[in-house]
Amino acid sequence: MSTDAEQIAAIKSQTLALLVEITAQPKPTYQIDGQMVSWGDYHSQLQRVVDWCNEKLTGESPFEQRSQGYT
Asked: Is 39 helix (H, G, I), strand (E, B) or coil?
């Protein structure tokens, strides 16, 4: 079973692959059967997913904080 960090990394990787696809061949915003399809909004949504993944992965990473006391 994969850890949360591994799952988030997989989501990030998949989302980045989608971003590569849609930026390689950009499409215009259009309306079909009364439904609006906005590629710019889709791109922004995918970027927010990547940002969310980055935040979560940063929180999962171990960190070290150094301090020094004075006497």
From this structure: helix
- The answer to whether residues 22 and 43 touch, using CB atoms and an 8 Å cutoff, is yes
pLDDT digits over 42-58, tens only?
Answer: 999 999 999 999 999 98
> What is the torsional sign of CA 40, 43, 49, 51?
negative
What would the two tokens of residue 23 be?
A: 């930026």
Instruction: Single out the residue of 65, 62, 57 nearest to residue 15, CA to CA.
Output: 57
Helix extents (H) in 1-71: 4-24, 39-60
Residue with tokens 């301090």, as numbered in its chain? 67
- Token pair 């993944």 in the structure block, residue: 53
pLDDT digits (tens, 9 = 90+) for 8-28: 999 999 999 999 999 998 888
